[in-house]
Amino acid sequence: MGKFSEEKVARILVFAATLAERHPKAFPSGKPGQTSTVLKIGIHFDIYALYPDIPKRTVRSLMSWHTRSRKYLEAASVAGTPRLDLHGDLAGEVTEEQAKAAQDNLAERKARSKASKTAARKATARKAGA
Predict the structure, then answer these.
(1) Of the candidates 65, 81, 78, 77, which has an alpha carbon nearest to the alpha carbon of residue 29?
(2) pLDDT of amino acid 13
(3) pTM flag (> 0.85)
(4) Alpha-carbon torsion, ordered 15, 88, 86, 26, to 10 deg
């Protein structure tokens, strides 16, 4: 969440805690990205309807943070994984195409992380040799 101000991150975290309190089956941890519960497609529309006073930007940011987390993507990378609505009821399942997209996203992250670590080691070696 590096691109957001501390204030915005705080608002997102407060709202995440609210969702966890009121919808524990969909948001069991209360912390974005700390659960492997896969949510139904379009759940943000349900959230908008239930929480009209929460800015849509806050909801979108929370959902983006949550659904792009490693834990979430790992759970979503398995076709047939159930998707839950806010009440914890079955609301579809991860399709083969969606699972492949999650797998690809995880693979890209792993490759970027590896490249970043390699570049850091090379920079450290250059500084040590200078």
Answers:
(1) 65
(2) 92
(3) no
(4) 30
Token look-up 């991860």 returns 94
What gap in Å lies between CA 107 and CA 114, rounded to an integer? Answer: 11
The closest alpha carbon to 50, from 79, 87, 95, belongs to 87
Most distant CA atoms of the chain, gap in Å: 61
Q: What is the mean pLDDT of residues 75-79?
A: 96
- Full 3-state SS string of 49-107: HHCCCCCHHHHHHHHHHHHCCHHHHHHHCCCCCEEECCCCCEEEECCHHHHHHHHHHHH
Residue with tokens 């659960």: 35
* 8 A C-beta contact, residue 106 and residue 70: yes
